[in-house]
Write a structure and sequence with these properties.
mainly beta
Length: about 130
């Protein structure tokens, strides 16, 4: 399984970006897999951003992005998206996508995800 993240860049505060994570090597639709987005800023621990389950489309968000970010999936394309609105400088980080089958109680734990894509840098200027 390979995950390819893309869509990062530099944006001004208040702007928007959409990240994509394309999966290959396995079809995730109708599976029990979750796709998650995590981010890590310099000097900080990795932070859970959002997750979605492929079969039901249920979504989960970290507290710091709730109401601003939206995760979605396109099963036909085996791709997950992260729409990020109202970005602020605190959102600056390397964003990585991951796939796994965590229990709901562990959905925010990065160690529960088996497959990881390379990160994509998001920089929000003030």
């Amino acid at each position: 399984v390979q995950l390819q993240a893309s869509g990062g860049g530099v944006v001004q505060a208040g702007g928007s970006l959409r990240l994509s994570c394309a999966a290959s090597g396995r079809t995730f639709s109708r599976s029990r897999y979750f796709m998650g987005w995590f981010r890590q800023a310099p000097g900080k621990v990795r932070e859970f951003v959002a997750a979605i389950n492929w079969s039901g489309g249920n979504t989960y968000y970290g507290d710091s992005v709730k109401g601003r970010f939206t995760i979605s999936r396109d099963s036909a394309k085996n791709t997950v998206y992260l729409q990020m609105n109202s970005l602020n400088p605190e959102d600056t980080a390397v964003y990585s996508c991951a796939a796994g089958r965590p229990a709901l109680s562990a959905i925010r734990l990065s160690r529960m995800y088996y497959y990881w894509g390379q990160g994509t840098q998001v920089t929000v200027s003030s």
